[in-house]
Amino acid sequence: MEIGAIRDFLRERVSDPPTGAALVSRQWTGVVYASRADEYIAHLHRETFPALRALTGFVSATILQREVEDGREFRVVTVWRSLASIAAFAGEDITVAVVPPAAAAMMVRYDRHAVHYEIVTTAYTAE
Question: In terms of Cα–Cα distance, which of 84, 36, 86 is closest to 61?
Answer without folding.
Answer: 86
